[in-house]
Amino acid sequence: MCSIPVACQYRLSGAAIWLVMLVFLAGCGGGDNSATPTPQPIAPAPAPVPPSPPTPQPLTEQQRIDASRLLTQATFGIQFGQVDSVAAFLRDNSVEAWIQAQADLPITHHYPVAAHLRSDQEDQPGGFARPHRMDAWWRATLLADDQLRQRMALALSQFFVISEHSQLENFQVELAYYYDVLLNHAFGNFRDALQEITLSPAMGLYLSMMGNEKPQPALNIRPDENFAREIMQLFSLGLYELEQDGREKRDALGKRIPTYNQDVIEHYARIFTGWHFARKREETWHNFFVGVDFINPMEVIEAFHDTGEKRLIDNQVVPAGTAPGVALNDALDSLFNHPNVAPFVAKHFIAHFVTSNPSPAYVKRVADAFNHNQEGERGDMLAVITAVLTDPEARDAEAYTQNRYGRVKQPLVRAAQVLRAVLPPDTSVSTTNLAFRELTRIQEFTAQAPLSAPSVFNFFLPDHRVNGPLAELDMITPELQLMTSNNVVLSSNFVAYVLLSNDTQALRNRLGIDFSQHAAVLAQSQDEALSVLNHQVLQGDMTAEFKQVLIDYDNQIRNQASLEMRITEWLTLIFTSPRFAVQR
Amino acid sequence: MTSRRQFLQRACLATASMGCYSALGLQLNAFKAMASQARFSDHKALVCVFLYGGNDSFNMLIPTGSEAYAAYQTTRQGIAYPREGLIPIDLSLNDLPAHSMPRAMAPLAELFNTQRLSVVSNIGPLVEPATKQQLKADPNKLPPQLFSHNSQQALWQTAGINTQLGIGWLGLMADLLQDTQTNLPINISVGSSDILNSGVLQLPLVLNPNGPQDFARLNPSNTNDQQRIQAHQQLLALDHSPLTQEYARRITTARDNNEVLKQALSAAPPRTVNYPENNTLANQLRMVADMIAVQSSLQQSRQVFFVGLGGWDTHDNQPEQHPALLATLAEALSAFNTDIDALNKADNVTTVTLSDFGRTLTSNRDGTDHGWAGHQLVIGGAVRGGRIIGHLPEQRLNTQDDWDDGRIIPTTSIEQLAAALGAWFGLTDSELTTVLPNLNRFDATALQLFRSS
To answer: Maximum distance among all alpha carbons in chain B?
Structure first.
């Protein structure tokens, strides 16, 4: 199970790209999107019979803007020139069909790339190898076709949080494997994801369920409560009981109602005893370095499992002597079936993809989709993300022009959006292209990197508030917690780093960034270029005043500047504007 | 000043209602316009060091009498510090049996022994003073969500203010003392920030440990950037949505603050103290010392600082991790203290630690779980040093101090510590009750933390 061929590259040739694009544009269903526990080599898909082209119909500006908004919400940004093809697809099909087509695409895994780079360049198995993990992440983020899945994995990585700021620091490539687990479950069932992250050795090490052992009262040893506490607080239920629409329930005195108490945590902590690396044996239990295995799920060693009776949150009793695996299943079922899960998950994914302050009705619609998809299944994450992205509150101008609407972009996603807007889509993702390595530096500008939160509480708290006008509007602004005075400058400087700096000309050359495609638009006229930039990079947010500022500035510099320089200046101003920092 | 306090009181900080938030916001701009003259002729700085994750702080003070150590060892088992190598502390000013600090804390033991440091013992969140029996009988006397990291971090930082408002007691103190002649906030965080340092009136200034971050290619001091900056600022000024306006405000504020800071810091005296390398806390504290060094050119007669150090959630591998964390903390605090001395600011600067909670006296063999009360350190020339201030519980199970499994019930509340710091800082009694709405439930003057001046 752990031997993973390194040959699995996502797209190696232009021909392959077009094959994938055809599948993508056709939006054909029926693809096998079952989550596989192991990254599999991806064979080139057989060429489908191209559908007969729809009658060409000019796209309206609104159709382009609709496509632009969807791509901004659901991908790591719009590749320059991509809007028209997606707008045409949406015109001829639907947002649901686009989501399904994304879900049907082969999974672009990170671990095989990171592991290949490690073995190829440095002989340090199990070593630090952080750049390899980041390299794999940036390749997939910037160039993989399964963009929605990649975004889902990021959202899941900020829900089922593990971080390199821990003992995992020395297991960087193994962290990439955890990320692949999240990719695998992106459109699967939440219950399966909960099972696999619970038994993930990386999670086991991070929240110390690995090696957690049964009590020994004579030595004042009690089970470790770390994972039991956080799986409830952060990975399934939250601290307070919720209505289906996400609002906190209140008791007769108007107080919030805790979802569980310390006693419940202690029972689950006992269930989570006895688990360790799959290759661990009873006699090596206390020696971490024997049987290290970050790929296979943890397994139980009965000698360290607490076999006593336990009581679950729904008051179900797990009788003494129950097999550890059965007890674990019962425990995870009890959490999965708790009424808080649906609104708790719904709020997370709405906030990650669409808006920080959704209406209760929107939360309820998504939570209902969690509770039962069209087949009545509970926990279908494809149904959840479909409900998030197709909801009127995600799509309709009536909703997204409201004052309280929108979210501040995470700096990491914003950086990716800048790069995808300027990177040629045919950039080679072959592992022989080492330019991606330099993107590891991006972290200096983003104050954020994948699987790198300061704690299990992620980069920001979901209920972060800011004083001032936003407080007057009773708005929650989670991402703003990251945007300190220092970090707003860094985010701005990232744009200069990528687009303007003389120091990074070599990087631009290596990545093939030359702005020729963008300059070609400006060659026609300022108006033409601005209307393209409006939907290509600014989700239709470019007002007449905004355009006028850009035109005035261009008029000041156009006599001394090449087309490439002029368009680069415009892109710089757009990417450093608050409108680009905020998604609406 | 009175009106400023009244304003903050009207903000109904202690209530659970979010509705008062808007009332508060509406008055914000009018309030900001109010003039304020300099209130203090001296300088004081309060430096708060948050130890994220929950420090096993009972393990900072280890009883060393043979019977007491044996009891400690029996309770704490594999988590007990071995007796060999402990650093004795001079308890001559205290009526207490012998105690030591772990070797990793040697620089702090020295500060204790030279009476520059005291320990505030057994402190944590409390609704009101209560015995174990009272607490067991009435769950309403328990703080909400005990043992949960972020909930307890929030209680430490809000000390009775409604935690959902995102306002901390340090930030509120800054609101009350901010001299509006300068626009630079006196609530300053280095690295990242948190609720503690957020006031009603302004966001904390958050500095990179290396100082203010220059804009690249939008840099006001670069003549080639002027046209671009002009266009950029025109875009910032375009009203759009509340979120874009807030973002624009942050960019503008950063630009304005940078100018003030760069000018002040360029005149900072050269630093003579070596800070430890590869120490994230030391990096932050060095920046704090820079800001203290230039306080007079910044016209900041009061400054509050927030810095942090993570990694204290030692569920695993504690016998290795905890000494390493204590060493990082001790070396950073010691270097900072030396630097403050060199700046001739010893009596003007007080440093205090905070943490989510103490940890269980029981273990999971090689780690500990989330507890309740713990000890905190207070350092500075104004501090009545060499003392353990407050009740020092025995490290035994099933005592009157033990809530359950070695989670110790606090006997000093966060409000009491904050009040002592605030009083030293120059807040009036009525201002203290504004900042700490539940202070009247506790003895506000019980902690004699500071030398009388």
So the answer is: 76
Interacting residues of B44 by C-beta distance below 8 A, sequence separation 6+: B301, B302, B303, B348, B349, B350, B424, B425, B426
Cα distances from A251 to residues A240, A256, A257, B137, in angstroms, run 11, 6, 6, 20
What are the structure tokens assigned to A550, written together?
A: 């850009």
Q: Give the 3-state secondary structure of residue A119.
A: helix
What end-to-end distance do the CA atoms of chain A give, in Å? 43
Backbone angles phi, psi at A56, to 5 degrees: -60, 140
Residue B152 lies in a domain: yes
CB contact under 8 A, A496 and B216: yes
Residue B266 within a domain: no
- The helix/strand count (H/E) of chain A reads as 28, 6
Find, among A389, A359, A347, A348, the residue nearest to A75 by Cα: A389
| Nearest residue, CB atoms, B18 vs list A474, A497, A582 | A474
Q: Do residues B213 and B258 lie in contact, with contact meaning Cβ atoms separated by under 8 Å?
A: yes
Is any Cβ of chain A less than 8 angstroms from the Cβ of B28?
yes
Q: Answer whether A562 touches B (CB < 8 Å).
A: no
Let me know if residue B17 belongs to a domain: no
CA distance B220 to A77: 30
Please state the ipTM of this predicted complex: 0.92
pLDDT of residue B180: 63
What is the C-alpha separation between B428 and A195, in angstroms, rounded?
A: 55
Give the Cα separation of A51 and A43 in Å (integer): 22
pLDDT category at A55 given cuts 50, 70, 90 is low
pLDDT tens, residue by residue, B39-88: 899 999 999 999 999 999 999 999 999 999 999 999 999 999 999 999 99
CATH no. for residue B141? 3.40.720
Q: Are B191 and B164 in contact (CB under 8 A)?
A: no
pLDDT tens readout for residues B1-33: 335 555 555 454 444 344 444 444 334 334 444
Of A224, A466, A579, the CB nearest to B364: A224
Q: What is the mean pLDDT of residues B348-357?
A: 98
Q: Which range of residues forms the domain containing residue B168?
A: 40-215+278-441
Per the CB < 8 A criterion, the answer to whether B361 and B58 are in contact is: yes
Question: Contact at 8 Å (CB) between A192 and A241?
Answer: no
Please tell me the distance from the alpha carbon of residue A81 to that of residue A79, in angstroms, as a whole number: 6
Give how many domains chain B has, as a whole number.
Answer: 1
Residues 6+ apart with CB under 8 A from A99: A74, A148, A382, A385, A386, A389, A390
Q: Which of residues 83-142 of B touch A (CB under 8 A)?
A: none
B247/A224 touch (CB, cutoff 8 Å), yes or no: no
Instruction: Return the pLDDT at B396.
Output: 97
Beta carbons of A399 and A405 less than 8 angstroms apart: yes
Instruction: Measure CB to CB from residue B151 to each of A239, A480, A492 and give the nearest one.
Output: A239
Q: Tokens 């500060």 map to which residue? A: B111
What's the pTM? 0.91
Cα separation, B354 vs B329, in Å, equals: 12
Q: Which of residues 238-257 of A touch B (CB under 8 A)?
A: 239, 254, 256
Residue A268 C-alpha, separation from nearest chain B C-alpha, in angstroms: 14
Pick B248's closest partner by Cβ from A222, A470, A578: A578
Asked, for residue B10, whether it belongs to a domain, the answer is no
Q: Per the structure block, which two tokens stand in for A7?
A: 């040959």
With CB atoms and an 8 Å threshold, state whether A578 touches B360: no
Nearest chain A residue to B248, by CA:
A578
Residue A472 has a pLDDT of: 86
Tell whether A195 lies on the interface with B, counting CB pairs under 8 A.
no
pLDDT above 80: residue A6: no
User: What percentage of chain A carries pLDDT values higher than 70?
Assistant: 89
